[in-house]
Amino acid sequence: MKKFVFSIVAAATMLATQAQAQISVGPMLGLNLANISAKSGGESISTTMKAGFHIGGVANIAFTDHFSLMPGVLFSIKGFKSSQESGFGSTKVKTEANVSLNYLEIPVNVAYFFGQPGGGRLFIHAGPYIGLCLGGKIKADVSYPGTSFPSSSSDESIKVGNDALEDAVRPLDFGINAGVGYQLPMGLFVKAQYGLGLANTLPEGDGDNAMKNRVIGISVGFLFGGKSGR
């Protein structure tokens, strides 16, 4: 996947030079609504969304009036929330966790712009992404509902690596993005997308034990040096 993504970027740069494609670049930032698809021992694990953000740069390489390549480099916070209850006799224990994972991500999307250049234009896009986990944190709160026992909290760093005994998350993530957006003539754009993680990010992961990223992203950005279309 890593070689595939960088091959696309290299090929696009070469084609852009040869075809004299219009290239525009600029910043992009937005909201992440992140979650995971997870299994343990073959059983699905229930989790909920957590809010994060993404920020970085994006380029639009327009080969025609309608087709563009849109690569980017982003810092993106993913993760999830979970809430579990267990019991020891009549005593119940409630554990709530908030997991944040920090990624350096490279998306490479192919975009199609509807309508003609010169005005506001709707576009759709899809393509692969590759991400490198830079670290993260897990915040946990433990309480004992219905008792006088004091609650407790913890805040720990997440170890990243491929050692099943020492690490919690693999460094490599990859998957597919797809979304829709709208670009104004001066270069301002907004878009929404869904990121489907395909990599099992558990170091000990297998068919029965898995954790894969799922992210809804809402972004706003500005492209300098280009208009809506070519």
Write up what this structure looks like.
The chain is mainly beta and 230 residues long. It contains 1 helix and 10 strands; from the N terminus they run H-E-E-E-E-E-E-E-E-E-E. It has one domain (2-222): Beta Barrel (Porin), CATH 2.40.160. Helices cover 8% and strands 63% of the residues. Strands 1-3-4-5-6-8-9-10 form an 8-stranded antiparallel β-barrel. A hairpin with a 7-residue loop joins strand 5 (91-113) and strand 6. The radius of gyration is 21 Å and the shape is elongated.
Question: Topology of this protein?
Answer:
Elements: H1 2-19, E1 22-40, E2 43-45, E3 50-62, E4 67-88, E5 91-113, E6 121-143, E7 152-157, E8 172-183, E9 188-197, E10 210-222
Antiparallel strand pairs: 1-2, 1-3, 1-10, 3-4, 4-5, 5-6, 6-7, 6-8, 8-9, 9-10
Question: Termini, distance in Å?
Answer: 30 Å
CATH architecture: Beta Barrel
Question: What percent of the residues sit in helical stretches (DSSP H or I)?
Answer: under 10%
Strand content: over 45%
Strand order in the sheet with the most strands: 1-3-4-5-6-8-9-10
Count of beta strands: 10
Are there runs of 5+ residues with pLDDT below 50, and where?
none
CATH topology: Porin
